[in-house]
């Protein structure tokens, strides 16, 4: 059909321009690890490595110079390590810890200082790594199972230690009447009275660690809506209306 004079023939809209690749900075003292990650993340995955660094100081300088979209940061590096550099890097770009370290205190400190994710080598595929980078860029935290287990272990240890400290000293429990009152709590966890399911207890541990709903969703591989539903049931069982109230009861300090 011929177009009328002075009109243009209708056509398909031009294709949307391809999104530019995410620009990454890799900080790791091991050149083999840096080379491997650069190869993985610069091979048509929608990401590109714009800079590498051997320690925290180099990472900070490179971040100022290149302004990456995401920083991949190792924990243990000579000179300025990852944890020491983290507070200086977080204001410049989202930071994802990418490391072999899954010690409890290291994981907790990294998340406390603002890391948007914590991935342990050997616990993710290339596709999962690329997806995690994108999620961290969009503010969706990612935590691999090893790091999650470290957090849960620490929380349970803290709660157990606090519970033990609340018992009376040896001289006090020498009286038979006092001992009889203590036998029941000592035989079972003080948390059992809340009647939380296994999943609810896991989520309550993560709440007590200070994790946000987004971080909990990433750690448990569930949606934020599911996290919120669990939290509503947890609060009802703990007779709490805030995270701080629930945490205090869960850790036995209320």
UniProtKB/TrEMBL annotation:
It comes from the Bacteria. InterPro entries: CheY-like_superfamily, NreC/VraR/RcsB-like_REC, Sig_transdc_resp-reg_C-effctor, Sig_transdc_resp-reg_receiver, Tscrpt_reg_LuxR_C, WalR-like. SMART domains: HTH_LUXR (SM00421), REC (SM00448). Residues 23-136 form the Response regulatory domain. The modification 4-aspartylphosphate is found at residue 74. Residues 189-254 form the HTH luxR-type domain. Pfam families: GerE, Response_reg. Coiled coil: none annotated. Keywords: DNA-binding, Phosphoprotein, Transcription, Transcription regulation. This is Response regulator.
């Amino acid at each position: 059909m011929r177009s009328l004079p002075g009109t243009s023939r209708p056509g398909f809209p031009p294709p949307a321009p391809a999104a530019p690749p995410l620009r990454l900075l890799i900080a790791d003292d091991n050149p083999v690890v840096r080379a491997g990650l650069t190869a993985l993340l610069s091979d048509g995955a929608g990401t590109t490595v714009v800079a590498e660094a051997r320690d925290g100081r180099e990472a900070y300088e490179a971040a100022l110079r290149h302004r990456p979209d995401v920083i991949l940061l190792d924990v243990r590096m000579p000179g300025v390590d990852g944890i020491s550099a983290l507070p200086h890097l977080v204001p410049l770009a989202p930071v994802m810890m990418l490391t072999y370290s899954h010690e409890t205190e290291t994981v907790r400190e990294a998340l406390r200082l603002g890391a948007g994710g914590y991935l342990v080598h050997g616990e993710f595929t290339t596709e999962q790594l690329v997806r995690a980078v994108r999620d961290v860029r969009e503010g969706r935290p990612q935590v691999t199972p090893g790091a999650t287990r470290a957090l849960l272990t620490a929380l349970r240890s803290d709660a157990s230690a606090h519970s033990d400290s609340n018992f009376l000293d040896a001289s006090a429990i020498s009286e038979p009447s006092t001992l009889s009152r203590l036998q029941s709590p000592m035989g079972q966890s003080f948390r059992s009275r809340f009647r939380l399911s296994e999943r609810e207890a896991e989520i309550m541990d993560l709440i007590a660690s200070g994790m946000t709903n987004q971080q909990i969703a990433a750690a448990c591989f569930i949606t934020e809506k599911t996290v919120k539903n669990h939290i509503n049931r947890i609060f009802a069982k703990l007779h709490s209306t805030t995270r701080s109230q629930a945490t205090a009861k869960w850790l036995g300090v209320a």
